[in-house]
Known about the structure:
By secondary structure, this protein is an alpha/beta fold.
Amino acid sequence: MADQVSATEAAAVEALGVAVARLATDGATTGVEETSTAAGEVPAHRSHDPANNAKRTDPFMFGQRFLTQEDNVFEYNAWDHVETDDAFKEYAEKQYELQRSAPVSEFDKSRFNSDPARWWNMFYKNNTANFFKDRKWLHQEFPILTQICEPDAGPKTILEIGAGAGNTAFPILARNKNPLLRIHACDFSKTAVEVMRADAAYDTKHMQADVWDAAGTGDDSMPPGLGPASVDVAILVFIFSALSPSQWRQAVENVARLVKPGGTVCFRDYGRGDLAQVRFRKGRYLEENFYIRGDGTRVYFFEKDELIKIWTGETAEPETPVEGDRDQKVASTEDTQPFMTADEAPFALEDMGVDRRLIVNRAMKLKMYRCWLQGRFRRK
């Protein structure tokens, strides 16, 4: 019965995604005018040749395919740095209202929040290592990972938090040339850790996979084999969003205890307004921007200034509003939960960017907007 429900929900979500994409295109501008870049402002390196809109022969670089007035939006599967159009924003706000009107029941809130590891165990039992693709983009997005994998980098320790089936750890291990590198891959799903340990690429000389809850307390606040100030780089990719807001401060404190002064946290997660958030139906809303997926796992969608506040205690500089963007907010301490002040927060911001991408179904002439947040924090 559970499998039948999941299949039904998946079909409904897919149908809703098509409806969202169609609404974003029907009777609306393509978004080219709103996101066009003047010819003099377009970087020299582009992933396509504006003269004939054909792919370049040099290696493709993420984040370099800019949509301009001269481009055919349906020529490629994806475009970078594209703001959502007004039709999508309007539809998204209506979706949020529907979600808030029919939240998760108190019984289900307790059921899903009391033992989140259970649902992730079920997820990895059903999907093993086949659900996520290996993250081969890591070295491009976080150059420090290349630096510490060089032959002469010396003793270095990477901690991946929320390692899942190893889709981050194994690609790093495959490119590593540093004989003194250690990768600690931790997940609070016992099943995920078993999947990593059973992988042919699992090499105990350089890698150790363990069960650990990033928001653990007391004796469980540190993963096996690691002590205070023992980590050079911590990686959190689509893991912070799985935590309840009530767990954020503990998780940040745990990471801070592990990372060396001057060490780096590499971060990527879901941004507010991502299509995955808009797609949620009634009965999935836990609290503002926090949802339960059909498989029982939780996901939160962050504002940029909210993340900066959580990790650094700093209030982000207000961004220049995009004309017609109803979701644009001016950052203020009232918009974020005041966990720490800037003086007591253990991390400083190195950078934080909003990765907005337009995914295109060229055959059906559909547009789908994605939004992720990516940045780096430095341990004070």
